[in-house]
Amino acid sequence: MQLVILDRDGVINEDSDNYIKSVDEFVPLPGSLAAIARLNRAGYTVAVATNQSGVGRGLFDLATLGAMHDKLTHLLAEEDGRVDRVFYCPHSPDDACNCRKPLPGLMHQIAEHYAVPLTGVPVIGDSLRDLDAARAVGARPLLVKTGKGLRTLAAAEGLDNVPVYADLAATVDDLVAPS
Amino acid sequence: MMLLRSSLFSLSMILSTVVVALVLILMAPTPFVWRSHFARGYAAYNVNMLKWMCGIDYKVEGRENIPDSSAIIFCKHQSTWETYALQLLFPPQCWVLKRELMWVPFFGWGMAMLRPISIDRSSGRKAIKQITEQGIQRLEDGIWIVIFPEGTRVPPGVHKRWGVGGSLLAAKASVPVVPVVHNAGEFWGRGSFVKRSGTIHVIIGEPIQTEGLSASEINQRGEAWMDEAMARISSVPVTEEYDPAKHRK
User: Fold this and answer.
1) pLDDT digits (tens, 9 = 90+) for B109-121
2) Distance (Å) from the alpha carbon of A161 to chain B's nearest alpha carbon
3) A137: nearest CA in chain B?
4) Looking at the 3D structure of chain A, how many domains does it have?
5) Strands B198-204 and B177-182: what pairing?
6) Helix-strand-coil percent breakdown of chain A, rounded to 5?
7) What's the whole-model pTM score?
């Protein structure tokens, strides 16, 4: 199987420093849904790995998170696209979990779920923590400028020649292009 | 248009609930089976109205898995729909529900006429005792028991860890557990007044034989089956939390 792993906030939908706490705040970025649909058509299974510490902080609950993904599903269906599964870390930084990116817990979980090694699997994110989690399991980190992407670029730390794209659509252009 | 159709359905549902509740109260002196059959008619009415007014149909896989004698149904809970549909799919049954539900005008009064196992949620251990004692009694009377082990309606894609009340009863009574999944919440979800037309997919799983199993073993098997079956019929991706017990690396 061909797998691609996406971060959520700032890659698929608009990010906010105040967390995405409600279904109404979950707003897809322009072109991101069509990009996921193109990944599907090219034979990719799309998984999402996302830190959602807002759950651990009590800002919203699992039901609300599920309702956001319900919304995503129905918007995606209009483009004929599909996210296969959403893996999330509910913890806050103080919880000492090992799933909050940059830690690789979610990546291990994905590898186990699909029973595939993540070596070379594209991981698309907007923060250094996404890139680091990808590197920890030998996956292939890719950075988008949407969400916190420009800030990540400006900080210029730990980028190490990671390819940079304008947004998810541009990344997918590159991934599905015949090489 | 769907707003209008959904409004019509809600109106029809409310009216039928009021009438049926009043009739059920009048039927109080009659045998349980009569009341149950009457309630089944009400369920059929609403399932049909939903199909007719909102274009929500359903298909069922695994009817052959329904055992001949009374058992406990562990059903996914996403919508009001399954509380109707289960009455059409299975023999006369009762529900485990929180006491407060019976105070809801008409709806709750009608429910009270259908021998529910009502529990006081605030009293942990006592609630579990209520489930086991009343549950065994119902099963002995040949009545099936419906349990929503997630405790509450959950949105599509979400799995809530199962409570232990239902599986403790199953272990104690040594009757089979029949797991049931469906994706009704994608068409008629909690808190979504406007419905989506489409076909609900129901799967009735192979019964779990509970003899010799502990409550947590029953839950483990049931949840594993439910996760897998839901992934098959759900169009909404599963939102899965990292489980440190499962992924020690």
Assistant:
1) 999 999 999 988 8
2) 28
3) B249
4) 1
5) antiparallel
6) 40, 20, 45
7) 0.85
Distance CA(A42)–CA(B75), nearest Å, equals 37
In CATH, which of 3.40.1130, 1.20.1280, 1.20.1070, 3.30.70 is domain B2-233? 3.40.1130
Query: Are the C-beta atoms of residues B21 and B109 closer than 8 Å to each other?
Result: yes
Nearest to B239 among A66, A99, A105 (CB): A66
Give the start-to-end residue ranges of the domains of chain B: 2-233
Tell me chain B's radius of gyration from C-alpha atoms: 18
CATH number of the domain enclosing A84: 3.40.50.1000
Supply B224's token pair.
């594993």
Cα dihedral A86, A92, A97, A102 sign: positive
Report the pLDDT value the prediction gives residue B249, as an integer from 0 to 100.
45
Burial of residue B190, with CB atoms counted within 10 A of its CB: 0-12 exposed, 13-18 middle, 19 or more buried? middle
Q: Identify the residue with better confidence: A57 or B242.
A: A57
